[in-house]
Design goal:
By secondary structure, this protein is an alpha/beta fold. Helices cover 45% and strands 14% of the residues. It contains seven helices and five strands; from the N terminus they run βαβααβαβααβα. Strands 2-3-1-4-5 form a five-stranded parallel beta sheet, covered by helices on one side. Helix 1 packs across helix 7 and helix 3 runs parallel beside helix 4. The longest helix has 16 residues. The termini are close together.
Length: 170
């Protein structure tokens, strides 16, 4: 395991609909650090592609991941929380290259619950039609990765408590 940052540098990860934005913002508020919504770093072409129901490729994601990584790297001393799907190990490795002490909080939920959440939310570009492609791409945190997997079915405040406890104990 890498040496953790002095200040919390945390990536709240998972597929669309798992609660990354809600938990990420609450976690940042709790830790008194800046929060960034990873979707805000996507270029317009990526948003348009996803809104049209077309999954992103690794080539589409690369520049976006580099922007998220740079944001994390700039917060190594003062801390920060970003929501970012970080579905594949190599994506997380790319983020860790810029922020070696980054801690990952994977919000995991059943496909049925994720689909329900995606179908109920309004004003988001990501259609539920892309859920299966995200689940197919998802590589859960491995035991050698610095982070924790939590059950996204819990109340967001409880998820934040679990994330903080896990970060503090590592």
């Amino acid at each position: 395991m890498p040496e953790r940052s002095v200040a919390p540098v945390i990536v709240v990860m998972g597929v669309s609909g798992c609660g990354k934005s809600t938990v990420g913002a609450l976690l940042a508020e709790t830790l008194h650090v800046e929060y960034a919504e990873g979707d805000d770093f996507h270029p317009a072409a990526n948003i348009a592609k996803m809104a049209a129901g077309v999954p992103l490729t690794d080539a589409d994601r690369a520049p976006w991941l580099d922007i998220v990584a740079a944001w994390l790297g700039e917060r190594q001393e003062r801390g920060g929380v970003v929501s970012c799907s970080a579905l594949k190990r190599r994506y997380r490795d790319r983020l860790r290259a810029a922020a070696p002490g980054a801690f990952f909080v994977h919000l995991a939920a059943s496909r049925a619950e994720l689909a329900r959440r995606m179908d109920e939310r309004r004003g988001h570009f990501m259609p539920s039609a892309l859920l299966d492609s995200q689940l197919a791409a998802l590589q859960p945190l491995a035991c050698d990765e610095f982070g924790v997997t939590v059950d996204a079915m819990q109340d967001p405040a409880e998820l934040v408590r679990e994330a903080v406890t896990a970060w503090e104990s590592n």
